[in-house]
Specification:
Elements lengths: L1 H24 L17 H12 L15 H13 L1 H6 L1 E5 L3 E6 L9 E6 L26 E3 L3 H20 L8 E6 L10 H10 L7 E3 L3 E3 L10 E8 L1 E10 L3 E2 L8 H14 L8 H11 L4 H8 L1 H13 L2 H7 L2 E9 L5 E2 L2 E10 L5 H12 L4 E4 L18 H13 L4 E7 L15 E3 L10 H4 L6 E3 H17 L7
Parallel strand pairs: 3-5, 3-6, 6-16, 8-15
Antiparallel strand pairs: 1-2, 2-5, 4-17, 7-8, 9-13, 9-14, 10-12, 11-13
The protein binds zinc ion.
Zinc ion binds next to helix 5.
């Protein structure tokens, strides 16, 4: 008996040692380096130029017949007028009438170039919400602290910050070592098939591949949801895929006075309930594992032990993340019924009931294996699981390696401009224009250097009162300046 007890004690001690060892070993995942000395810039001029760009309503519409392209023509003219130095120094290429590529040749043209991206178009304003805006969405109003309007966050803030940084560097006589390309699409919000896709074709045709690509997505947010006082800088190293499935329950219709035990609507409802009760499996590997490690290193001992020992606490971590919609979306393919349709008259049982269910696919899943899992969960031959016509879904983007030198370079730059931030690889829940560039670089990052003014700002993207803080905008410009200046300085890697 004594020996058994001894054995247990030894085991407990060994386990504790392993847990603690792993927890302390999370150590220095943070890139070493000192905060950078940031270049001073004339922020008032930059604010005016962005505000002027917000005033041009470059709205993308799903029904492309409704798009007013004169605004895109004006937007391109506006860029040329406001940034003459940039257009004189860089080579501009107009792509498919409204998208723009700029090439800034480096002093070492044999080095692989990099690509900075943003988009010109914005989402429409819901007329019903118009009176809830503090300032009209396209007024380009700027007060002492904030620039208001549709597109400030998504994505004209980034677009103008890139232009300002290049303009400033040219004024200082700077020429990059590595060639820099800039690509601004004009239809990101409706899939990018006319803009980014055509720009990618231009690069492919000219045999241009990139050392790394930096586009919107990710960004600097509060670390509070992870229990951190420090902000978190999310660099999305992949983006989720997309698929909608159509569920069709078929049966015999008829008069509602003598219904069968189950009607088509009931059968469909059961199928949907099963899907909601059985979320698709969590995937805690890949970038998520890396993310836990980096965040864990910043935590107090107990949560740090949990984050560092995923082999033991996977179930617990899964439960914690599943408890919030945002956390849940990080770890698994999400399931969202979005449309349901059946029936035409209150006393007639429909012969068919249909629903659309939208899935955002995490790396590790594919459209095919999701269809299999959905059929298995529903487990009812009366319910067909179909792809809506011509829509077979989009795979998640390949994961860019967070251990690559290029990631470390970017992380270090972020840290040098935002010294408090914890740089963490993540997965973008939404799509970006980079989906058209997947074969043009193994290192694709989605990160915006313009932080929010407060935690409400994320909801404002595509919503009411979209805005950015002027301080955050200035920091965003300085971030691009610092990034460009750091390129080609190999000792920074
Ligand atoms: Zn966007």
């Amino acid at each position: 008996m004594k020996n058994v007890l001894k054995g247990i004690l030894v085991l407990v001690a060994a386990l504790t040692a392993i847990l603690l060892f792993n927890a302390y070993n999370l150590g220095d995942v943070r890139p070493l380096g000192d905060p950078a000395k940031l270049m001073n810039i004339n922020i008032q001029k930059a604010v005016d130029r962005l505000a002027g760009g917000i005033k041009i309503p470059t709205i993308s519409q799903t029904n492309t017949n409704k798009i007013d392209y004169t605004h895109f023509v004006n937007f391109n003219r506006y860029l040329r007028r406001e940034f003459p130095k940039v257009f004189r120094t860089l080579e501009p290429y107009t792509i498919n009438k409204h998208s723009l590529i700029l090439k800034w040749g480096g002093t070492q043209p044999l080095k692989k170039p990099i690509l900075l991206m943003a988009h010109m178009d914005v989402v429409p304003i819901d007329d019903q919400s118009l009176d809830q805006w503090t300032f009209p969405p396209f007024s380009g109003t700027a007060d002492e602290e904030i620039i208001w309007g549709r597109g400030t966050m998504d994505c004209k803030g980034n677009l103008f910050a890139i232009m300002e940084s290049v303009d400033q560097l040219i004024a200082n006589g700077y020429q990059p070592v590595q060639t820099i390309y800039i690509a601004f699409g004009h239809d990101e919000e409706i899939g990018g098939n006319e803009g980014a896709k055509k720009s990618a074709e231009f690069f492919r045709k000219n045999n241009i591949e990139f050392d790394f690509i930096l586009d919107e997505g990710g960004g600097i947010t509060s670390g509070k949801s992870f229990g951190l006082e420090k902000p978190i800088a999310f660099v999305a190293v992949s983006e989720k895929g997309y698929m909608t499935l159509e569920l069709v329950a078929k049966g015999t219709g008829g008069h509602s006075s003598m219904p069968k035990k189950e009607t088509t609507i009931g059968i469909l409802a059961k199928a949907i309930t099963k899907l909601q009760d059985n979320p698709l499996p969590a995937r805690l590997g890949g970038p998520i594992k890396h993310m836990f490690k980096v965040i864990g290193a910043e935590m107090d001992l107990l949560p740090r032990i949990i984050m560092a020992n995923q082999w033991l606490f996977e179930g617990l971590l899964e439960r914690i993340f599943t408890s919030s919609p945002a956390g849940n979306a990080v770890i698994r393919t999400t399931t969202a019924p979005t449309i349901i349709s059946a029936g035409i008259k209150d006393n007639v049982i429909p012969a068919q009931a249909k629903a659309m269910v939208n899935f955002r696919i995490i790396p590790g899943d594919t459209p095919e294996n999701i269809v299999d899992m959905v059929r298995e969960i529903i487990d009812d031959p009366r319910v067909e699981v179909n792809h809506p016509e011509g829509q077979f879904g989009r795979e998640p983007a390949p994961v860019s390696d967070p251990d690559a030198q290029q990631f470390k370079f970017l992380a270090r730059n972020i840290y040098e401009v935002f010294p408090l931030a914890v740089v963490v690889p993540g997965i973008s829940p939404g799509g970006t224009d980079t989906k058209h560039f997947l074969d043009l670089s193994p290192n694709i990052y989605r990160f915006s250097g313009i932080g929010g003014t407060d935690n409400s700002d994320l909801k404002r993207v595509h919503g009411i009162d979209e805005r950015i803080g002027i301080k955050a905008y200035k920091k965003g410009i300085q971030f691009y300046i610092h990034l460009i200046e750091s390129l080609g300085q190999d000792q920074k890697l």
